[in-house]
Design brief:
Oligomer: single chain
Number of domains: 1
Helix content: 10-25%
Number of helices: 8
CATH superfamily: Capsule assembly protein Wzi
Distance between the termini: 48 Å
CATH class: Mainly Beta
Strand content: over 45%
Shape: globular
Largest sheet: 18 strands, antiparallel, barrel
């Protein structure tokens, strides 16, 4: 076996053909809008790009189109922009070194935001103060590296603060320390090293997030949770791409001491994507949460790279939480495609648990994206529907939910919900605007009964029947509009302003938050507080 491994590494190393810049493109919705039209409508069918596997690899994108140029925005360079200061402010990284065998880029990261709730008195001001630094570069033609760290102090909206109190983490981030009277202090570290010896194979070791899907949400694996250490490998040939991810997670058990560390668990993901002609991509997904105690008995089978091997070993109702899924994208018109997902969790009852509902746990997604909507260049429209049955993602083994750091690995609402959302986005030069509307209906758990929304309540105390949106009826609606100006596309520094509304209805009462905000942000990751 060892000889086989060495032969494989030797072969891959000698397949190198010099595909430059195997950097990952940070996963941010606004940033990806710039590239998705080119990725979905490339003319050469031999250059298949599997859009459901995110973050994207810059070297793979450059084989399909000039991704560097698109990401930089193709903006006109003014007279000031040609000066040294102008280049640093408007076009280049703060520190940038380029040579034939080594590149290095260093830039600051910021998120300085001020917002005010217009429905409350003047004391309800919400602020975010994030400072950080990113370093990225390449070594030769096959190795890329990235590292960043963010330090944040913020005052959060009441519904987000309630989540922090309940789960001891800041959504999309991790543990925190109190800051002043009612603020939070928290950080975020990310980094990776990528080795891409050929266009057919890449390996990455890092601490970050991953995403499987073509939608705004993913019911399989999303970027909703905190960063985690991982090893992932991708292999592709013509119209096939295979993705393997192994990661270390933290379970969902909370403690009286908020500084006490969570218990470890492990994640394995296998995803096989196939392009059927020019119009269809279909992917088969398998993901398993391996509880740390369970893993001691099953050795390191979580590292088995063969798809469906975890399902064959654990089934769908075992103590190791295995999910299966399908991802589909179909190009229906020149600049329009539809997409969807189907997730299957348990079928029937789980082992060693008598109270779980007997019917299956599953989720469905359907959506559509239109580029150059209404024949207007750079005008983008997306609509999406998501629905997940009660108790999906939960586990009979406490702490082994489909989660990391007390946050869902898929949809932030959890389960027992349905959702409709829509986006309109337009960009003209450096100026962009975005409108978002969203409606979520769900059944809330009570203090003593789990109706299936909160995945951390698990299957314990579950009702004996199961109906859609069972429990206490509740809903959340969003209406959001923002405008921005891209200051520097190299690290996506933006000026942003907007107005947001959130209505939460429960028990016959509606709580309305309406706030205006302005900020300067490096948009390199998603902050999703729309739950």
């Amino acid at each position: 076996m060892k000889k086989w491994a060495w032969k494989l590494l030797f072969l891959l190393g000698n397949l190198s053909v010099g595909y430059s810049q195997p950097l990952s493109i940070p996963y941010n919705h606004q940033l990806y809008y710039r590239t998705e039209e080119s990725l979905n409508y490339i003319s050469d069918p031999n250059k298949d790009f599997h859009t459901a596997i995110r973050p994207y690899n810059l070297a793979e994108m450059n084989r399909s189109f000039n991704a560097d140029s698109v990401l930089r925005g193709q903006f006109k360079v003014s007279k000031f922009g040609k000066t040294f200061i102008g280049r640093k402010l408007l076009h280049k990284h703060t520190i940038q070194l380029d040579s034939a065998n080594f590149t290095l880029a260093v830039s600051p990261l910021v998120n300085l935001e001020y917002g005010k709730d217009l429905m409350k008195d003047s004391a309800n001001v919400y602020t975010t103060n994030t400072r950080g630094l990113m370093v990225q570069g390449t070594i030769g033609k096959t190795v890329a590296f990235y590292a960043s760290y963010l330090e944040t102090q913020s005052k959060l909206f009441p519904y987000v603060a309630d989540y922090v109190t309940a789960y001891q983490v800041v959504p999309n981030f991790g543990r925190y320390k109190p800051f002043k009277k009612d603020g939070y202090d928290y950080g975020l570290a990310a980094g990776y090293v990528t080795w891409m010896p050929s266009k057919h194979f890449s390996m990455q070791f890092g601490n970050d997030k991953n995403f499987i899907g073509d939608g705004y949400r993913s019911l399989l694996l999303s970027d909703n949770s905190f960063n985690y250490p991982f090893l992932k490998m991708t292999a592709g040939f013509k119209n096939i791409k295979y993705f393997v991810l192994m990661a270390q997670l933290q379970d969902g058990v909370t403690y009286a001491d908020p500084q006490q560390p969570f218990q470890k668990k492990f994640l394995s993901v296998h995803y096989l994507s196939y392009s059927l002609g020019k119009r269809i991509q279909i992917g088969l997904f398998e993901g398993t949460n391996w509880h740390g105690k369970s893993l001691q008995k099953t050795s390191y089978n979580f590292a088995n790279p063969i798809i469906l091997s975890s399902w064959a070993q654990n089934g769908l109702a075992g103590l190791n939480n295995t999910n299966l899924g399908l991802n589909l994208k179909v190009k229906v018109f020149k600049r329009t495609h539809v997409y969807g997902q189907f997730l299957l969790d348990d079928i029937g009852g789980a082992k060693k648990l008598d109270t779980i509902p007997s019917s299956a746990k599953y989720g469905i997604q359907g959506g559509m994206k239109m580029y150059n909507f209404a024949s207007v260049k750079n005008f983008f429209w997306q609509v999406e529907f998501n629905q997940v049955s009660p108790y999906t993602y939960s586990s009979p083994l406490k702490g082994n939910e489909w989660s990391h750091y007390n946050q869902a690995l898929a949809h932030p609402v959890g389960a027992n919900f349905r959702e409709v959302l829509s986006f309109l986005s337009y960009r003209y030069g450096r100026v962009w605007a975005e409108a978002k509307g969203m409606y979520i209906q769900y059944g809330r758990d009570s203090a003593s009964v789990s109706y299936g929304r909160n995945i951390f309540n698990g299957d314990q105390g579950a009702t004996t029947g199961k109906a859609w949106f069972q429990g206490q009826n509740a809903s959340v609606a969003y209406a959001d509009f923002k405008v921005g100006f891209i200051i520097n596309p190299s690290f996506n520094l933006n000026l942003v302003a907007g107005i947001s509304n959130r209505w939460e209805t429960f028990g016959g009462q509606t709580n309305h938050i309406q706030f205006v905000f302005v900020g300067i942000k490096t948009l390199l990751y998603n902050i999703n507080h729309d739950f």
